[in-house]
Amino acid sequence: MDLESHKNTQVLILDFGSQYTHLITRRIRKLSVFSLCISGTSSLEAIAEHNSRVIILSGGPHSVHLDGAPWLPRGFFEYVEENGVFVLGICYGLQLIVEMLGGEVKAAKSSEYGRMNIGTYEGSVLFDKAMEQQVWMSHGDEVIRLPEGFSVIGRSKRNSIDSLKKNEMGTLNQNGVDCLHENTIAAIENPSKRIFGLQYHPEVTHSPKGMETLQYFLFEVCKVTADWELKDVLIDEIKTVNNEVGPEDHVICALSGGVDSTVAATIVHEAIGDRLHCVFVDNGLLRFQEKEHVMSTFQADLHLSVTCVDATDRFLSKLKGVVEPEMKRKIIGKEFISIFDDFAHELEQKLGRKPTFLVQGTLYPDVIESCPPPGSGRTHSHTIKSHHNVGGLPKDMKLKLIEPLKLLFKDEVRELGGILHVPQGFLKRHPFPGPGLAVRVIGDVTEGNVLDTLRQVDHIFVEAIKQAGIYDSIWQAFAVFPNIRTVGVQGDQRTHSHVVALRAITSEDGMTADWYNFDPKFLQYVSSKICNEVQGVNRVVYDITSKPPSTVEWE
Ligand SMILES: Nc1ncnc2c1ncn2[C@@H]1O[C@H](COP(=O)(O)OP(=O)(O)OP(=O)(O)O)[C@@H](O)[C@H]1O
């Protein structure tokens, strides 16, 4: 499956920069319908290439009536009409439809943010019945005049709409004015043109009936078929790898022990067997017994051929005395590259030929990230290569990339891993940063035995979480070594020892996060276990900051 050559995207999402755009794509795939997301200002050719049955216009931060707002390409509405494509505009997408087709959108007197109630009308195509429902709104503009041929099919219930008559759709349509402006237009449709719009976000869980509406729209209104399965991706990818990699070619892959590189390598291994050569680097910044655990899974469960490079001294000697976080990251990235380079050269000696391909666990959000939506202020500088490979690839390696996961989201990769029999414990592992514990020790990582102390604390914390049966409800849990000493009293003795911090967060996608609300008894247990068992620690604190304003990692 290839982004450029995928010609049968049943649902194409045009991204106008909403934070929820990825969610729309994911929710639709969960309904077994293949969907892709491309920039909202893509050319008409790029849109038409997908042959989509349905096009969804996402929300976005812009105002359609202001200069510089992203618009659909010229000829878009003619194209969808001629080709029988269904269109659904969400939030900004709805406003764009209205503005481009001759209606009017204005800054609202009062914005609608958060939960609201709306009422939908009987007799519409998009809603099968009249009902009241709670939805999630996030807009400062509102539609005040509809284009010709459109009807209002739902309104927010700021004022009571019980008194609204059924024929209001017609009234508004004929007069072209909204006489009931106190109740903002929440949904519109023009069934004969196959164009629909929702002012709210059906894709978020705060719109509890939103999925039902999307489902109804796709299956009942657009008659889309639910025929996409994740295992199709596997079959396609194995085929693609076999087509691309010649029978004599060799492929390398750097494995981190994380889900992405492991699943990517397993797919390639299915395709070409032992012509895949993996390398796992112990940079001295791994967690408690991580190397042993990861290597045994690679070999015993996945039968991958993995070379383990013990580079602890190489990394730690370069990190001696370094306290600046960005500097640490740069040093680690550079060292990784030099090790991958050595690995490729050694392999060349052994095989008598250069490896020609490199497997990377690039995910779909990385791809979308590298083509940011219009007006996002982000540029294309964030290339997939430098994003995904710790610090970038050695320039002279000239390897061609294999990215079998580049159209998938993290939860889909986990599911695919399950199909490939990657052990569940591995697939559900919390994310771990490439620079490892170096970004969890504030200051010099080589001082005293800070790394060992941190490993012990982290292990106690994470094991306790596993024993409490809550590991899978937490996105990421770990310990931090802030490098601060405080006064304590242990066994009648005054101590001047270290503080350690614990962090546990919940998140949908890592972009935003909330701290995990543990039972106080759990925290009490973990705190005393750490102070009793880990030498040099006399205080434990728990990080109660969300992202934003904090990041997940401390450095
Ligand atoms: N210790 C390591 N040994 C070998 N390769 C590594 C190591 N750490 C990271 N890498 C490589 O760098 C890539 C990016 O690392 P990063 O920590 O950002 O992972 P990621 O994007 O979460 O992916 P993964 O789930 O594979 O860890 C990994 O996919 C892997 O190819």
From TrEMBL:
Q: Where does ATP bind?
A: S256, G257, G258, V259, D260, S261, T262
Source taxon at top rank: Eukaryota
Which Pfam families does UniProt cross-reference here? GATase (PF00117), GMP_synt_C (PF00958), tRNA_Me_trans (PF03054)
Entry EC number(s): 6.3.5.2
**Which Gene3D superfamilies does the annotation name?**
3.30.300.10, 3.40.50.880, HUPs
PANTHER family per the record?
GMP SYNTHASE [GLUTAMINE-HYDROLYZING], GMP SYNTHASE-RELATED
Q: What is the lineage of its organism?
A: Eukaryota, Viridiplantae, Streptophyta, Embryophyta, Tracheophyta
Q: Could you tell me what this protein is called?
A: GMP synthase [glutamine-hydrolyzing]
